[in-house]
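Input record, target 12 of the design panel.
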């Protein structure tokens, strides 16, 4: 019997779909130390009104705003099928400390499948990828993959420190 090979991209796509379905059903992938961390204690209780990060959706507008406000830019490159992107949205980006720290940035979400040119420009090849840029548009820091709130706050601080060096 002949067995056909499955292209790598097909296998990865199937794995991504299965991961998204598992997350939707509330099932978690195997726990790693950082991925299994719970939401930071700064998160408000369920049902409480939450602040949210004020995301823009245009990289060009975000760069213009960052230059005008002299703030660094936080660009979240994501895809609709990415389970870890959704977990980042639900867990990390809703943490009250992360929301407060995000006010020090111009924040932009870029769907990498709809704006593949921007993703290519910043060499994004996995999701989520958060690229921090200075107000001139130069990359100063990057986070590849999911990070729980406490780890993401450290990354935000590192980006702010780099931005201050100019």
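The sequence produced for target 12 reads:
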């Amino acid at each position: 019997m002949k067995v056909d090979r499955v292209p790598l991209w097909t296998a990865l796509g199937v794995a991504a779909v299965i991961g998204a379905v598992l997350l939707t059903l509330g099932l978690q992938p195997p726990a790693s130390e950082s991925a299994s961390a719970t939401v930071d204690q700064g998160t408000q209780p369920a049902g409480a009104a939450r602040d949210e990060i004020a995301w823009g959706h245009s990289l060009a507008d975000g760069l213009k705003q960052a230059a005008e406000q002299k703030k660094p830019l936080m660009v979240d490159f994501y895809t609709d099928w990415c389970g870890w992107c959704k977990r980042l949205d639900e867990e990390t980006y809703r943490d009250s400390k992360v929301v407060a720290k995000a006010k020090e940035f111009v924040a932009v979400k870029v769907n990498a499948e709809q704006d593949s040119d921007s993703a290519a420009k910043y060499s994004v090849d996995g999701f989520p990828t958060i690229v921090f840029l200075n107000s001139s548009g130069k990359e100063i820091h990057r986070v590849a993959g999911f990070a729980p709130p406490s780890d993401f706050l450290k990354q935000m601080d590192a980006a702010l420190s780099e931005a201050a060096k100019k």
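Residues 92 and 118 are 23 Å apart (CA to CA).
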